[in-house]
Automatic annotation (TrEMBL):
Residues 2-210 form the GMPS ATP-PPase domain. It is an enzyme of class 6 (ligase). The chain holds residues 202 to 543 of 543 of the full protein. Pathway: Purine metabolism; GMP biosynthesis; GMP from XMP (L-Gln route): step 1/1. One of its GO terms (molecular function) is ATP binding. GO terms for cellular component: cytosol. Homodimer. Its EC number is 6.3.5.2. Coiled coil: none annotated. The keyword Nucleus does not apply. The lineage of its organism: Bacteria, Pseudomonadati, Pseudomonadota, Betaproteobacteria, Burkholderiales. Catalyzes the synthesis of GMP from XMP. ATP binds at residues 29-35. This is GMP synthase [glutamine-hydrolyzing]. It comes from Inhella inkyongensis. The gene is guaA.
Amino acid sequence: DWQMGGYIDEAVAKIREQVGDEEVILGLSGGVDSSVAAALIHRAIGDQLTCVFVDHGLLRLNEGDAVMEMFAGKLHARVIRVDASELFLGELAGVTDPEQKRKIIGRLFVDVFKAEAAKLKAGTEGHKGENGSRAVKGATFLAQGTIYPDVVESGGTKTKKATTIKSHHNVGGLPEQLGLKLLEPLRELFKDEVRALGVALGLPHDMVYRHPFPGPGLGVRILGEVKKEYADLLRRADAIFIEELRNTIDPATGKSWYELTSQAFTVFLPVKSVGVMGDGRTYDYVVALRAVQTSDFMTADWAELPYAMLKRTSGRIINEVRGINRVTYDVSSKPPATIEWE
Ligand code: XMP
């Protein structure tokens, strides 16, 4: 809209002034904040921006390709995709404790990003990105999609939970460690403003209005040890659940059940149960569907999804994903249950 257009012009001018003819690196995760920051900075300085997208192999179905298609394909931004899935899966082998898994994923993520950023800082000649190679004279800025609530939280203005139940990884201190200056063009915006900005910059509505997805990704949605086999089954089951949520419209509100829920996903349970298919007996894995409604993610109610939708989803998962023969629905609210299962 008109107002947003004015805002974009101003923000673009500010970024150009701050950056001058220097180079900027940004860690792209596919999440809303880093995506909008990337689109805005790219609008301002084009090829002076290089995005680094670390793929830990724990993303959802086709998610990595979708990020590349959007940023490298449609926006023509310079994006380096680092496929680190083997590294992550290797380090996670045999690890079952949820906090341990979070720590490993967080540490590797920082390591991989830092290594890539160091190359860009050094101005590696002809660094090979998905978008072709080019001599980069050496980056001096690190851009982050920090938004206003993040600023307030780290400033201590907002009271933090007395006890941290789950460790979260926001990559603090990276610019200092890398010796880069910080560029944070979304610092003054609230989440709904970031979303509106994303749409105005041409990002697809579905990308900008997505449910939150945890940094450790499917790593905390596969209970216990993370294996590629489990991640592959989970990705396919989850894609079916999300598709059904998007396609099922609530007649009372005219909204999809994806919009009517705050977060919805599938959890992989590494247990097998007996089933029957045709003339045979099956002995396969179980998944749980989780869907909640919440305004602050501190407390949450399980969503009263229509039975017909649950039935369709379960039927499709069991029919289409060989290896899963049972689907359950999680009817626990937070507290005492948390939203994620780990
Ligand atoms: P819980 O499971 O604690 O989750 O009720 C509350 C919200 O936080 C998200 N979450 C995470 N986000 N890294 C993240 O970036 C994490 O390790 C993590 N653990 C939970 C969760 O998806 C929900 O939105």
